Amino acid sequence: MQASTLLLLTLVLALVAYGLGYARSRALAMPLGGIRHLKSLPFYYGARAALWCVIPAILVLALWAAFQDKVIQALIIGSLPPELIPDTEGRASLLLSQISNVASGALPPGFVEPPIVEAAERLKALREQSQLLMSVLVISVSVLAGFLGWLRIQPRLNARVQVESILKWLFFASAALAILTTIGIIFSVAFETFRFFQKISFIEFFFGTNWSPQTALRADQVAAEGAFGMIPLFTGTLLISAIAMVVAVPVGLLSAIYLSEYANKHVRSVVKPLLELLAGIPTVVYGFFAALTVAPFISDFAASLGIDASSQSALAAGGVMGIMIIPFVSSLSDDVINAVPQTLRDGSLALGATQSETMKKVIFPAALPGIMGGVLLAVSRAIGETMIVVMAAGLAANLTANPLETVTTVTVQIVTLLTGDQEFDSAKTLAAFALGAMLFLATLLLNVIALKIVRKYREQYD
Amino acid sequence: MTDQRSQAEIVRQSLKHRYRKERRFRAYGIIAIAIALSALLVLFADIIGKGYTGFIKTTVTLDVELDGEMMYLDDATDERQLKMADFVEPLIQALLKEIPEATESDRDAVRDLINPYASITLRDALKANPDWLGTTRTMTFLAHTDVDVYVKHGDDDAYSIKLSEQQQAWVDQLLERGVIDTAFNDVFFSNGDSRDPSKAGVLGAIVGSLLTMFVTLVLSFPIGVAAAIYLEEFAPQNRLTDFIEVNINNLAAVPSIIFGLLGLAVFINLFGMPRSVPAVGGLVLTLMTLPTIIISSRAAIKSVPPSIREAAEGIGASKMQVVLHHVLPLAMPGMLTGSIIGMAQALGETAPLLLIGMVAFIVDVPNGFFDSATVLPVQVFLWAGSPELAFIERASAAIMVLLTFLISMNALAIWMRKRLERRW
């Protein structure tokens, strides 16, 4: 049975358990003189039986589904004839994909060696066995646990407290998932990054000015020795982010000021959602716009002025990214400006200052820390933004500050290194994780600082 | 003392200057808003201008003579014969009949007017109606991509027209006579991806997106709501809870591509789940949208006034009953609104899905959560990167489909907020 069907079946079983539990609690209450004599309402006895039925079964199902492929693969590799047992991880995955292609019928058996065909047959058989075993195990666990739960229903049992504590644990587990996700991120990037630094030295990665990750995938392949200096990537990222900020900060800030101080309610109620629409547009659309409209426009325009501009310029990617970030800056600044108490405004206006003087000399300084926090968050977003730069910035790692030249960014390199076929013991693939680690650390640092500033500032007037 | 101006005089003198400054400052604000809104306008105009032609297809209507002898076919119910038969010849003959000045030597040029898949359309039609053999039928086929580009963009310099002068003249003539015509591009909504732009459609991507979103919704909504309930209602004030809170806020600001790395390392490498399937895509997007849903759900729970809780507690409800029977139903509209916005973000997300392999070229419409699939934004990415310009209009058209989904989701969220959210 498929995992999804099995899941549905478990839920049906849980419903049955609920019904049986409900009925049994009522039946037990009957001779005592009604459900008044139960410790909890019949609903809770039913819910308890259902939870008993469903939770262990789902745990078993999840564990089985998560690890069955790994176990089957290990079994297949282990049962291959000794001359075929792969020596590297890359070969193993190649062999496995060959075997599974034969098994699924995508690759006709005539094209491969007989042991592989045998392995494919074994794979099919193992998969079926695993599927069957999983179904039997999950169903029996579910029925057994449900039955036990049902058996233990007694009038004296406080089912409500039990159900509530199980629910509370489930709620806690959901909240803890956030920690698990973070741990997952840290371990997944840290582990591969560690392996990367076993191959490439720290000094080369952090201080190297040359990035060309093309390395030989096979020992006998002719390829350039890869160079993994991250400086050009980070300067490219910073250049594009800086351009984005040059566009987003003034536009976002001034529109926020106008909307919060000058615009009447009517204008505000139209313009604000329109600005927020900019934030809701998927980044791939901005990337499309940057790559196919803005970049050609910039290079044509520059050519008409007699300046040489690359067709994939940092300016195009950064400018469009700036447009994307405008609503982010404007709504954050809007919040902060609105949080400045009205008394400050009134005081300044009463002294005879004009509105713009009030804004520039009183409100803006008061709101500045909050605005800085918002801008830092926006910078972190620009650094981590992927699709626009993947589509509109280039692949060549240039160490340049000229916005008309093509540069590449950290996220572009992560995507290019990890799309397509990979081998997890080559420095090329592992480099993507090292870059991911740097990106994670950089944005984390910015976020922590920004959130601290924003929070600290907000407390001032409360 | 006439040369020493009074204070009032100074103020009056400077007023003009100050008012000018005031007006300038106000103008800056208006200019900033104008820039932002014109960017929005240009973006939409550009996408629509590039993409509206994607909703139009070019067709060729021909009187096809289904002559058995010409096609080497004498029994249309025989599978083997159908496989071997020549379905190109009747099309060429029909086209030659429509273009009187073309001779037998122009066969190749004439054949290039009609879509290479037209012969398959013809075969399928004959398979479905074996009695058509020997008759002449009027049928409509897709035109060749080059014809399609010429008909739509013949006067646009950006597109290189691949038809020869002679072919262009024929197409002009056939257009005038209505043999070549344009129609609403239903193919775009009923096909998966294809190497041939005129056959490429978004159905596969839409189904892939729906499957992925289903997984995301089913996982992230209950988990997000449960986490929010725990943090708001049950969590003790201790280090662990603080840590969870800080974590959730940070996760909301982690770049999405990092979640792609997580998915690749954990779901694909560690658990050995298959690549480019909606199940894994949904899991990755779940982790990504969870913080958004938790944060908005917490805000919704917070907005339920304490009096409701106290009243319920006052008549003896347990903490859990207070939450599930009273707080949750009142907070539900706010939670749903936040979740719709989170789902809209997930629907437009591309980067993490690239890393888990959802960029594969997939022609078939996916049938389940473990079928290889692609999603709408990734489809846009794939088409936008294609060197063939005919794919650019498909990409723009797909963007319009994607934006339609997104804007309607956001509109639904706004409507729900207005309609259902209660102020206390």
Supply the number of helical segments of chain B. Answer: 18
Could you please say which CATH topology of the largest domain in chain B applies here? MetI-like fold
Main β sheet profile of chain B:
3 strands, antiparallel
Helix content of chain B: 55-70%
| CATH-derived topology of the largest domain in chain A | MetI-like fold
Q: What letter string, H or E per element, gives the SSE order of chain B? A: HEHHHHHEHHEHHHHHHHHHH
**Total tally of structural domains of chain A:** 2
Computed over alpha carbons, the radius of gyration of chain A is 31 Å
Beta-strand content of chain A: under 5%
| Lateral strand order in the biggest sheet of chain A | 1-2
- Supply the CATH class of the largest domain in chain A: Mainly Alpha
* Uncertain residue ranges of chain B: none
Query: What is the architecture of the largest domain in chain A at the second tier of CATH?
Result: Orthogonal Bundle
The number of strands of chain B is: 3
Organism (chain A): Marinobacter subterrani
Family (chain A): Belongs to the binding-protein-dependent transport system permease family. CysTW subfamily.
Protein name (chain A): Phosphate transport system permease protein
Membrane topology (chain A): Multi-pass membrane protein
